[in-house]
Structure prediction request, 453 residues.
Amino acid sequence: MAKEREYFIHGQVDEQGNVIIPGCVRNGIDEQSANKIFDEMAEFAKYAFNKSHAAAYSVVSYQTAYLKAYYPEELMAATLNSFLGNLDKVPEYIDECKRMKIDILKPDINKSQTKFTVDEGKIRFGLGTIKNVGISAVDIIVKEREERGDYKDFSDFCERIASETVNRKCIESLIKAGCFDTFGQTRSTLLASFESILDTITAKEKNSLKGQVSMFEMVGGESNLDEIKYTYTVLPEMSKKELLSLEREMLGLYISGHPLENYKETIAEQTNINTFKIHELTEQLQNMEGRTDYKDGDQVKYAGIITKIKKKYTKNNTIMAFVTIEDLYGECEVIVFDSCYSKSAQILMEENIVLVEGRLSIREEDNITIVAREIKPLTQKETSKVLLLDITNLNEEQKSKLRGALKFFNGERNNIRVQVKQGEEIKNAGAIYCNEKILDALKEICPIGDASQ
Prediction:
């Protein structure tokens, strides 16, 4: 690149002194500015397109934007289907659906197809997205339903589907994912009963092959046969936490709720970063934006539920861990070195809800992580006062001032929750430290509603 830089700045002449390339200096641009321009060109060239390539991308971008505007459910369902082979990417697009206010429905044995589908303006999980349920098994389930109608109940499903392809592990996974909830029986009941039901069906098939007839069939007791031959171990439903845990195990994410729903306000008060902000930061870095909301080494507080722990021995024969913690927007990896691990080992267990204090680690080509300094259980505080800020009639300059003020007064001493009102909609906006002087300063920017308990 040195030769190209020289030609760009000072130009090029042939042996007779004829100017082949004039260069910047000959065109009245000083050498320092020319160097700066060349550096910017070289940086841009790392991700630059020729015109034909850019034109093709523009067409695809326009088509995608059109679909997202006019057919958002269909577009997102198709996008989710494109990642069926990489379910790690699915939660990211599920979050996008939630942002677009598109409801995600859990799988249903009578409504789900193999893949994600649009169901009355909502997106329904496909049976093929469930762990341990193969595509061949789904094909049999869907084909049987299309040819002979919906399944009437769980035993009807077992009778019509029992085969080597739709095996016991497959049926257990369908139960855990909530596919049979429409029949009104609890998942705990079905999990406790399905094996005995399958055994009864298998025994009946063997007897039929031998030409044996049961006493009930002889007397024409067809109408009461199902009641007699299938015994359900009726149990109360599992706790909401257990049901959500099963959903995540089978689908890779929570659908009918989230373990952190009751912690929303507490998390907003006690943290200063979440995975939504981390995703935004990643995009800012990828787009090479000069100014970012966070930088490497910033002290952060992050809270969520532990979903995965990978322990590792260090060179000094001590234990460190890579902990995946999920909040309401996605997952983040937390690196726990031996000094922190020794103090927090007792609470580092899957499904524990924790608060992490540490520093942000931003490395080129790597995902953004948090290096933990301290990890402790997340405790819910008593409901605190709420500061209601009405931004309905604010202009962009006033909104920018307000954002700056809220960020400036957010820190270790937060003592009041903040909510923002725009029209009829009210949203949580974290927490700040507030006293009379700060309150007066905020009143100069926007109207403030009554603080409430």
Notes: Residues 386-443 form one domain.
